[in-house]
């Protein structure tokens, strides 16, 4: 778009603003009529470990939002010569799950407990058994029930419980609502009713009644909304919370607040059935949109939904590239010790590409990338390992290949549950994250692991702030009954440049050989955990 066209869009409010509260950064993105970003701002923040709880202070939420918006509005003025006074629609996203509980006077009853806390094992186990539905420790309902089991006095005072994105939205609009994808990380969703599962609500309400607590879940949980539905408008007080200068006007419509999983699906155009996306960096998780619900409970798989309520299976592995990065940094030290200077990007690309010339099964080598524990393989702690036999073909190409394979080992076990036991069908997987940065390599390894085509889009790096901005635009511009997946495919991603790698049969067979070695060798990892303290 021409600068003059963008300026006119800004002045007339034909824009959408997305803000995502990530684990290390708050990011704001303003998009124009063609859905492309036109300005952005950000704020770095970190969780704190206080009194045994991973938390963020709520004052930092508002400081970060204001600074991100200030940077964005300054960029608008500098690039386009116009002050940002109104916006077509706004959306907020954040880290899913966690625990934010408020009393009747809207006071926070306990420090914000984030998704990172692992203090709810007892509650998660009991609820999984009660519901016959996997309830991970990080889910909001697990936090509530653990507080009940602990006998925490504040539970009796709860009148509203929400997530980080839901909290921000509530304070800006007065509306206690959540998008269905975000809500699915608080409490299980029934994708036939697009609301909290009634049977499970009744079972939990029985627990509340037994404790003589003065509320039901329906009383305290946010109302569930679907993508495209109106979620209120920015109040005068809310406008001041975003922009203390008073320039931003009230009355701007807001879309339902969504979680980072949902905005990631939107940003990779992975909301239709038989599509999926995989984010691979420090950790790795795959999200597959299902044609039907799974037949039974699997502790390795979380069930959430798309922003339009379709069931999604999520396979999450704690460890991906951290150990591989450590090896590459070791190689960097060796090169520097020889007096040679090689840039980090060049080194990564060279070593990643070397893996393509390795044996299909990585030459009989074995590695475990467990810097931390790995729930899929039932390890509470990890010990990174590299193992070989005297007969293994030990060379640089195989060494790199086995570490790339290892980055996907635990994920593969979870994915096999979907493919082999549940017969899930997947047409294409969209990859994003550092694992896919070197052209073709990460895609080829992932295609070998899952045996489906793996694609990377140019816009995949835009992230969740762009994803929630797209949801805000969808609310404004969707046609009558236009499904979200159609809107994204035809109006946002039409003509998008996509690089796709098909699975190579030799790679697939080689990865299968590696996985047999990986599973058989878990006893070695167990011995390392027990023997190396």
Summarize this entry quickly.
With 533 residues, the protein is of the alpha/beta class. Helix 10 packs across helix 16 (463-477) and helix 15 (441-450) packs across helix 18 (505-520).
3D structure, described in words:
- This protein is an alpha/beta fold.
- It is built from 19 helices and 22 strands.
- The strands form 7 sheets. Strands 16-17-15-14-20-21-22 form a 7-stranded mixed sheet, sandwiched between helices. A 5-stranded mixed sheet has the order 3-2-1-6-13.
- The longest helix is centred in the N-terminal third of the chain and has 23 residues, at 58-80.
- The N and C termini lie far apart (59 Å).
- 48% of the residues are buried.
Write the layout of secondary structure elements.
Blueprint lengths: L2 H9 L4 E6 L3 E7 L5 E8 L3 E3 L2 E3 L2 H23 L8 E6 L5 E3 L18 H11 L8 H10 L10 E3 L1 H10 L3 E3 H4 L5 E2 L4 E2 L1 H13 L6 H4 L2 E3 L10 H7 L15 E2 H8 L7 E6 L3 E6 L11 E5 L5 E7 L4 H16 L6 H11 L11 E3 L16 E3 L8 H11 L2 H13 L6 E5 L8 H10 L3 E4 L5 H15 L6 H9 L5 E4 L3 H16 L1 H10 L2
Parallel strand pairs: 1-6, 6-13, 9-12, 14-20, 20-21
Antiparallel strand pairs: 1-2, 2-3, 4-5, 7-8, 10-11, 14-15, 15-17, 16-17, 18-19, 21-22
